Amino acid sequence: MALEHQEITDGNRLISQFMGSTIKINQDDVKDIPLAFLKLEDMKFHVAWKWLMPVVIKIEDDLGYSITIKNKTCRVTVDEDTAFESEEQTKMEAVWKAVVQFLEWNKENS
């Protein structure tokens, strides 16, 4: 099932709040993404790996949670009792949805 416009807007807003003003890209040929100057509708977390993977890395490196991506399924594991899993039509949609579910939980529990 395709993502709904409101779902994309809400999810991308949550991700941008988590990421802060800039996504730092550690690749010579890829520019950093200045989130502070973009409108929500211009954010591409739901359609571009160069946007989404820094979010995955931040969750793993900064927060210490495990993210498993396999085929078209993504799972963010918090502990034995808490995990956020999504299986979707595409790998990107699965990762985006699992990340958004996790960030909703993280915002409420931090």
Walk me through this protein's architecture.
By secondary structure, this protein is α+β, with helices and mostly antiparallel strands. It has one domain: Bacillus phage protein-like (Bacillus phage protein, 2-Layer Sandwich). Helix content is 44%, strand content 17%. It has three helices and five strands; from the N terminus they run H-E-E-H-E-E-E-H. The strands form two sheets. Strands 3-4-5 form a three-stranded antiparallel sheet, covered by helices on one side. Strand 3 and strand 4 form a beta hairpin. Helix 1 crosses helix 3. It is globular, with a radius of gyration of 13 Å. The model has no long low-confidence stretch (mean pLDDT 92).
CATH superfamily: Bacillus phage protein-like
Give the structural class: alpha+beta
Number of strands: 5
Order of helices and strands: HEEHEEEH
Computed Rg = 13 Å
Q: Which stretches are poorly predicted, pLDDT < 50 over at least 5 residues?
A: none
Mean pLDDT: 92
Q: What is CATH's topology name?
A: Bacillus phage protein
Number of domains: 1
How many helical stretches? 3
Instruction: Write the CATH architecture name.
Output: 2-Layer Sandwich
The biggest beta sheet reads: 3 strands, antiparallel
Widest sheet, order of strands:
3-4-5
**Amino- and carboxy-terminal Cα gap:** 31 Å
Beta-strand content: 15-25%
Tell me the name of the CATH class: Alpha Beta
